[in-house]
Amino acid sequence: MSTMNAAPSPLNTRSLTAHGPVIPVIVIHRLEHAVPMARALVDGGVRVLEITLRTPVALQAMRLIAQEVPQAIVGAGTLRTPGDVEAALEAGCRFGVSPGYTAALGRACRDMGLPLLPGVATASEVMTACDDGLDFLKFFPASAAGGIPMLKSLAGPFPEVSFCPTGGISAQTAPQFLALPNVAVCGGSWLTPHELMEAGDWAGITQLAREASALRA
Ligand code: 3PG
User: Fold this and answer.
1) pLDDT tens, residue by residue, 82-131
2) Whole-angstrom Cα Rg for the chain
3) Contact at 8 Å (CB) between 72 and 49?
4) Beta carbon of 212 within 6 Å of any ligand 1 atom
5) How many Å apart are CA 17 and CA 155, to the nearest integer?
6) Percent helix, strand and coil across the chain, each rounded to 5?
7) Among residues 50, 86, 90, 211, which one is catalytic?
8) Best of 28, 29, 166, 192 to mutate for ligand 1, by most ligand atoms within 8 A of CB?
9) Domains of the chain with bracketed CATH
10) Backbone conformation region of residue 133, classed left if phi is above 0, alpha if psi is from -120 to 50, else beta
11) Which tens digits make up the pLDDT trace of 63-94?
């Protein structure tokens, strides 16, 4: 099957911000969790899902969710190589997220038609991504790389850049990030805690999603 046929129409990563203030960063260890977890998030109003490429079942999980949960907008996280981009597209992902940025990854995403939300942590990395036409960027690891003071500092030289801070953010701290003019959305793993996933507590995940959907300081 051609990857171009498998993927629905491409989207602009900035359009992801229209669906709510939080993008969950999801680690799936058991394939059977994929669909009920995605449905639980969608039920709580969270449609944009970043599934990390960190577990052996990640690609199968993306494919299943893309097929079974049409309301979900599935993206692949932890993209590092052109091979990852190809695999994500084949799994039906509509966007990609990377922890950092390389020209090779940017080229692969452009060539293969996968919208990319690339990670940056410094001004130089912002400049590199902007040179390649990317101005909606993941700020990662947000808390460890300077948090809110760093985002305020980046707003001066990069007024056109919008960020999705991710890494070390919680339901309690997200509103402070979301209050910044250059923060469009936040990312985080708190919507899908390992314990709730293992317990199959899908109602609990829906509740966390509902609370996250309502966060906008
Ligand atoms: C990650 O690295 O898994 C993401 O950045 C999420 O980080 P968090 O678990 O601190 O939310």
Assistant:
1) 999 999 999 999 999 999 999 999 999 999 999 999 999 999 999 999 99
2) 16
3) yes
4) no
5) 18
6) 45, 15, 40
7) 50
8) 166
9) 19-213 (3.20.20.70)
10) left
11) 999 999 999 999 999 999 999 999 999 999 99
